[in-house]
Amino acid sequence: MNISIHQTYGRIGIDTTPAEININNKNADLDIKQVPAKMEIDHKLPQVHIDQYQCFYESGLKSIFDLNHDEAGKSAEIGLEAIGKIVDDGDALASIENHQDVITELAQEAGIQDTNFNVDLMPKSRPKIWFDGYLNINWIEGGVEINAIPHKPEIKAIPGSINIYMIQYPSIKIDYVGKNFNRSI
Questions:
Q1: Is 15 a domain residue?
Q2: In whole angstroms, what is the distance from residue 9 CA to residue 166 CA?
Q3: Would you say residue 184 lies in a domain?
Q4: Residues 5, 172: contact at Cβ < 8 Å?
């Protein structure tokens, strides 16, 4: 058989455009307010108080009122002792029948005085000492207020594409190259 077959293969073309995505993301805006902490100080400077009243009193350095009071007490005591002595002497003289030498005894007693000497430390009391003053610290807390304002991202997308087309269509060509051809059916 004399047949000639020519075949052409099909060819396709592909054009692609890649997709693009652009994202522009802005940072959030921050609004920050800071309230500083405060410190309040209330104070009274320290003072030292020394009360030496008792020490001075025992040393004989008395106020006029204390001196008058003490001297009045001593005077009353001395007066009562003197009255008691006079009464005792009078009673002794009144009972002369019992004692023969009463006047000489009374004269001897009047001439002899007992004197006592003492050594003493003064003052005997300690001074009263106390302190006065204070320190108060009051803290007022501060703080931070933060407000964040977010921004939406800006997204730009370019879609990709694929274009498929035929560069060459397939074909088959069959030719009869022989000389005998039967045309009868």
A1: no
A2: 11
A3: no
A4: yes
Name the residue range of residue 100's domain.
61-112
**Largest Cα–Cα separation, the chain:** 214
Length of the chain: 185
Structural tokens at position 147: 């407000």
Per-residue pLDDT of the chain (185 residues; tens, 9 = 90+): 578 889 999 999 999 999 999 999 888 888 889 989 999 999 999 999 999 888 888 888 888 888 899 999 999 999 999 999 889 888 888 886 776 777 778 888 887 877 777 777 777 888 899 999 999 999 998 888 889 888 888 999 999 899 999 999 999 998 877 776 666 65
- Cβ atoms of residues 148 and 28 within 8 Å: yes
Strand partners of residue 129: 50
What's the domain count of the chain?
1
Rounded distance, CA 12 to CA 165, Å? 6
- Asked whether residue 159 is assigned to any structural domain, the reply reads no
Closest CA to 172 of 2, 8, 11: 8
Q: Is residue 168 part of a domain?
A: no
Residue-wise over 12-51: b if at least 16 C-beta within 10 A, else e? eeeeeeeeeeeeeeeeeeeeeeeeeeeeeeeeeeeeeeee
84: which 2 tokens?
Answer: 């008691």
